[in-house]
Specification:
This protein has 526 residues and is of the alpha+beta class. 40% of the residues lie in helices and 12% in strands.
Length: 526
């Protein structure tokens, strides 16, 4: 399969039409620089990467962009610098592209970090696609003006993790950036050890972050307030058009982002996903999951699980993510204050009122997710407590998060908890009595709405995945890829596109992690 990915198709030449490239964010930067001497970034080119090879390709996403089946095989035509492989490695460009790298700032681990920016990301351009305009960005294409003495490269290890997880999250129905391709090169890159380089091509309607607004709120550069307003107007016009006629666009945008972030946090919690680096520069203004580094899916359930080895204080533990989402929204609100005149007259009460809607929106979204995972069709006040009590029972013995909810789909309410038919889920709990007591309440709750087990099981299987990208699965794919075998990356990509469907031959992927998985550590270098 790897050879086929890298075999050119004779007499095939293709690239998107130049007119398809919109490049609106790059144009906004040119406008702000011309008007106020304050650019959003700079035009840039990637650093050449030697001997690139395809590792994985997302043909489904390419089709959504309107690209032909053989889009990746165009090696003829105008020369090697316009081949898809060259372009998506950073070694060339297609006509109409406007490569660009962006500046932003942010809070990292709760501390103001000042100017950051696309240290190893290169926005190739924005293309007009059947699914709507999409930006294509390379991660690992070399140093930029914002690399802060870094090399601008990504390594194969971290690139595989990002490629697989962004598509796994998409398969789970969670808002996320996408991955179009993964390219490897033998070029050495120094991290803790010497590794090899790779480039992921990422796709999203926009890569604008909370940190963009923070940068222009605090930069003090000439015209920074005007650029902040221009950035708000740009985001509203192109990504939140329903807010165009709002009395105050900045306030309306904040309200919309609060709503999307609350939903995103509920999505993450419901599948046991830990981001690991929820800095404000890693928060999407569109409510997408962005920047996959030291992420992880929970194995044995520990609400205080820290997936990032660099997070020695546990700021971004699973249980803290909703609170950190709110903290980051407060940082965004602070950045937008200069554009909200009412805030000056009323001690920012209008902004506080908007922020506080998170305190209702997140719990509502979370309860809806727990109800769905438990197969409940109606809403009762005690449902939240029912879910929390199940989680507490799981935490006591660290029952596997994904397996517990999947096995609960087949729980037989007409039988007592201790019946052998219910053993697959019951045996996951260290405290059987606690599970039995909870199961009786669960049975009564289902009975109150006339639930039918077979129908409930079908509903639950649509929201409780069989497969998630566990760390050991990614680690095995990485180990093989580092030896030149990319087949496991490609297999996992296919598997994770349908995480709710049991797939023949993938029984091990649905099982418990091996003992050695506990020793896997991921950090900010991951």
């Amino acid at each position: 399969m790897s050879a086929a990915l890298n075999s050119p198709l004779q007499n095939f030449s293709w690239s998107p039409e130049p007119a398809k490239w919109l490049n609106r964010f790059a144009q906004l930067s040119e406008y702000t620089q011309a008007s106020w001497q304050t650019p959003l970034g700079v035009a840039w080119q990637g650093d050449a990467l030697p001997s690139p090879k395809w590792v994985a390709l997302n043909h489904g996403l390419a089709g959504e962009l309107g690209w032909p089946v053989h889009w990746h095989l165009n090696e003829s035509g105008d020369g090697p610098q316009t081949s898809a492989l060259a372009v998506l490695t950073g070694n060339g460009v297609w006509p109409g592209m406007s490569p660009f790298t962006s500046v932003y700032s942010g809070h990292q681990f709760g501390v103001w970090a000042g100017q950051l920016g696309d240290g190893r990301a290169l926005l190739l351009g924005e293309i007009d696609a059947p699914i709507g305009p999409q930006e294509i960005q390379l991660k690992g294409a070399g140093a930029t003006p914002y690399s802060r003495r870094g090399d601008g490269r990504a390594v194969l290890r971290s690139s595989i993790r990002e490629y697989l997880c962004s598509e796994a999250m998409h398969g789970l129905g969670i808002p996320t950036t996408r991955a179009l391709s993964l390219v490897a090169s033998p070029q050495p890159v120094r991290r803790e050890t010497i590794e090899t380089a790779a480039v992921v091509a990422r796709v999203a309607p926009s890569f604008i972050r909370f940190g963009h607004f923070e940068h222009f709120a605090y930069s003090g550069e000439p015209g920074h307030a005007d650029v902040l307003q221009a950035l708000v107007d740009f985001v509203v016009t192109h990504h939140y058009p329903e807010l165009a006629d709002a009395p105050n666009r900045a306030l309306a945008l904040l309200d919309a982002v609060v709503a999307r972030t609350a939903e995103l946090m509920a999505h993450w919690q419901s599948v046991g996903f830990c981001h690991g680096v929820m800095n404000t520069d890693n928060m999407s203004i569109l409510g997408l999951t962005i920047d996959y580094g030291p992420f992880g899916f929970l194995d044995g359930f520990d609400p205080n699980h820290i997936c990032n080895h660099s997070d020695d204080r546990g700021r971004y533990a699973w249980n803290n993510q909703p609170q950190i989402g709110y903290w980051n929204l407060r940082a965004l609100a602070q950045a937008l204050l200069p554009l909200i005149p009412q805030a000056k007259d009323d001690e920012a009460k209008v902004v506080i009122d908007v922020l506080q809607t998170y305190e209702q929106r997140f719990p509502q979204a979370m309860r809806a997710r727990w109800r769905a995972k438990l197969g409940l069709q109606t809403a009762h006040d005690a449902d939240g407590q029912l879910a929390l009590d199940l989680l507490q029972a799981m935490a006591t013995g660290k029952a596997d998060f994904t397996i517990t909810f999947r096995r609960l789909c087949d729980y037989r309410t007409e039988l007592p908890p201790e019946h052998e038919a219910n053993a697959p889920v019951r045996d996951l709990f260290l405290d059987r009595a606690a599970f039995d007591a909870w199961a009786e309440r669960y049975r009564d709750r289902l009975g109150a709405e006339g639930s039918v087990d077979a129908e409930r099981a079908q509903r639950m299987r649509r929201v409780n995945p069989v497969y998630v990208l566990r760390n050991h699965m990614a680690e095995l794919a990485i180990q093989r890829a580092q030896k030149g075998d990319y087949s496991e990356v490609q297999r996992l990509h296919q598997l994770l596109q349908r995480p709710f469907d049991e797939q023949p031959g993938a029984e091990a992927d649905a099982g418990f992690p091996p003992d050695w998985a506990q020793a896997i550590e991921v950090s900010c270098s991951s």
